[in-house]
Amino acid sequence: MPNIKVFSGSSHADLTQKVCDRLGIEPGKVVTKKFSNLETCVEIGESVRGEDVYIVQTGGGEVNDNLMELLIMINACKIASAERVTAVIPSFPYARQDKKDKSRAPISAKLVANMLSVAGADHIITMDLHASQIQGFFDIPVDNLYAEPAVLKWIKENIPEWRNSIIVSPDAGGAKRVTAIADRLNVEFALIHKERKKANEVDRMVLVGDAKDRVAILVDDMADTCGTICLAATKLMESGATKIYAILTHGIFSGPALQRINNACFEAVVVTNTLPQEVNMKNCEKIQCIDVSMMFAEAVRRTHNGESVSYLFSNVPY
Questions:
Q1: Lateral strand order in the sheet of 201-208
Q2: How far is the C-alpha of 184 from the C-alpha of 160, rounded, in Å?
Q3: DSSP 17-62
Q4: CA distance 211 to 187
Q5: pLDDT tens digits along 11-55
Q6: pLDDT digits (tens, 9 = 90+) for 286-297
Q7: Which residues contact 311 (CB under 8 A, 6 or more apart)?
Q8: Could you give the CA distance from residue 265 to residue 31 in angstroms, rounded to a whole number?
Q9: pLDDT at site 49
Q10: What is the per-residue pLDDT across 175-223, written as a single tens digit (0 to 9) for each?
């Protein structure tokens, strides 16, 4: 492919390598380092003049450092006369701060959108935004890919009794995502109503739907401290579910998350590699990983060639 350059930020080099392998190109040369006062320094090691540039940087780990590095990389490519700069952000940072849920709360997702635009991004490719309205925070095109096709494929290949399953959303916000998957599998769905007293802590839960003698598959877009899904699993166990799986697009797993998963009654907790999972998989046997690099590679290839990306909303590229 002529005129395409894919650069990796320091957050997820493994995913970038997989994307480049699929595209049949080498990742672009870039050096990212920190000065002794912890300022970020980026050196793009090859010419990008007139090129179609893609920068892969996910919103995990040291979120703020990674975001700043991405902004600097975008700007460096932009002022080096790149034709177009696309930010590939598998897991969008600050996506949960997308509305004023109480007085004087910031809408940080909108701020991040503004920062990316001002830095010079022309296009954003991301996956399973926490709220799809975040696309409207940008004035530039945003392709929000779905992990759903890859999730359906995993369920059919790895859960033998999936026809007798029930897809469960651990909160009302994810009801739409869950109904879509339940429809495609032709099974029933349930949801859990939760009441939060304060962020990251759940007060009480009510299961709406019948999970008795069924395989329960919890589906959510992200799991951070895993308090919600572990409480949901306990609730499903009490309601008579035979086995419990959890499928999450973004496995952030901060704080006591891995400890909680180890203690909970999951058969498996399945995440995608929008965030690096090697360390988590070492520390927790139950975590399994779905590779979604081909979705991003195909999105990059189609964007570069000016083709439609909508095929990826319901199919896994082979």
A1: 201-208, 188-198, 165-169, 215-223, 243-251, 268-272, 287-290
A2: 16
A3: HHHHHHHT-PPPPEEEEE-TT--EEEEE-S--TT-EEEEE--S-SS
A4: 12
A5: 999 999 999 999 999 999 999 999 999 999 999 999 999 999 999
A6: 999 999 999 999
A7: 302, 317
A8: 43
A9: 95
A10: 999 999 999 999 999 999 877 667 776 667 889 999 999 999 999 999 9
pTM: 0.94
Q: What is the spatial distance between Cα 236 and Cα 17, in angstroms, rounded to a whole number?
A: 39
**CB of 190 closer than 8 Å to CB of 210:** yes
Cβ within 8 Å of residue 142, ≥6 positions away = 123, 124, 125, 126, 134, 135
Calculate ∠ Cα 169-173-178, nearest 5°: 35
Q: Which of 71, 125, 87, 63 is nearest to 252 (CA)?
A: 63
Residues belonging to the chain: 318
DSSP H or E run through 151? helix 148-158
Rg (CA), the chain: 20
Structure-token pair, residue 150? 């890859």
The interaxial angle of helices 293-305 and 13-23, nearest 10 deg, is: 50
